[in-house]
Amino acid sequence: MGTKRTKKLLNKSVFATAKERICYLFDHFDSLYISLSGGKDSSVLVNLAIEEAEKRNRLPVDVLIVDFEAQFQHTEDFLKRLVRTGKVNPYWVCLPITLRNAVSQFQPKWMCWDPNCKDIWVRSIPDVKGVISKPEQLPFFEVGTEFEDFVIEFADWYQKQKGTEIAVVIGIRADESLNRYQTIKNVRKIRYKHKQWTTQMIKGVYMAYPIYDWKARDIWIVNGRRGWDYNRIYDLMHKAGVKLSLQRLCQPFGDEQRKSLWLYQLLEPDTWQKLVGRVEGCNFGGRYTKSKGEYSALSV
Predict the structure, then answer these.
(1) Residues 6+ apart with CB under 8 A from 134
(2) Which of 2, 108, 167, 191 is deepest in the core (most CB within 10 A)?
(3) How far are the Cα atoms of 86, 166, 172, 233 from residue 223, in angstroms, in the given order?
């Protein structure tokens, strides 16, 4: 039988603990980047890293933005504001990457930024520093690469460019799902110097989760107290009655993600119209997930 692990409560705030973990990463890694979606968790993580990097004269902070094309316009607006501060160095990827489409049996996968569908793209390529929109900009990239493969290949490429061990800093929280909790708890994984909040991705690359023990309310508390910028789509979600624990951003057509697909229709109607014309099954998926009650987000 395996050793049973129980939670250890620390006599300090999650904010203070996260800052310690960020410090640890800067102490032990000369190179790191943050996986930035524009969502609330990764955005707080970036701001934590920026504060520490400023103290160490290590600005700008590298960030990886994998742009799925089918995203809220508010997300692009926020990411542009962040990039224009000059405090982050973006690898803003707008490449034809294959993604899951769980709302259609006829098109079980779709490809964002498909060059053959340019006339019906949901959004235009962002006009901002750091955008990678041509496959030749990343020598390892092949058109149609699966997202899960891309993130590993990018980390491998980045590590080789830096020539040293690197950290990929990710804003997941254990209370969001059982899978995320198990990612942290797994005692069999290879960790960096026995830190349970790290996981080896491949040789020389370690994933780190400095805010894994935060709750959703902690994100908004620190945003309010520090006055940090954030994605304003969350304001619209709040006005729509979406619970804090269910306010998430991701590509909208995955198995779990489709449950919030109909929110595009409510929060950004113009974006919704483009989604319907872009991805097979979008309109059906929006109606089905709402009518079947798969997404019990609205308070009544």
Answers:
(1) none
(2) 167
(3) 20, 28, 17, 15
HEC readout, the chain: CCCCCCCCCCCCCHHHHHHHHHHHHHHHCCEEEEECCCCHHHHHHHHHHHHHHHHHCCCCEEEEEECCCCCCHHHHHHHHHHHCCCCEEEEEECCCCEEECCCCCCCCEEECCCHHHHHHCCCCCCCCCCEECCHHHCCCCCCCCEHHHHHHHHHHHHHHHHCCCEEEECCCCHHHCHHHHHHHHCCCCCCECCECCEEEEECCEEEECCCCCCCHHHHHHHHHHHCCCCCCHHHHHHHCCECHHHCCCCCCCCCCHHHHCCHHHHHCHHHHHHHHHHCCCHHHHHHHHHHCCCCCCECC
Rounded Cα gap, residues 208 and 18, in angstroms: 11
> How is residue 102 written in tokens?
């769980």
- Per the DSSP assignment, residues forming a β-bridge with 208 are 169, 198
CA–CA separation, 120 and 274 (whole Å): 7
Stated pTM of the model? 0.89
What is the dihedral sign for C-alpha 238, 243, 248, 254? negative
Backbone angles phi, psi at 238, to 5 degrees: -65, -45
Tens digits of residue pLDDT in 121-173 = 999 999 999 999 999 999 999 999 999 999 999 999 999 999 999 999 999 98
Tens digit of each residue's pLDDT (9 = 90 or more) over 255-270: 666 667 778 888 999 9
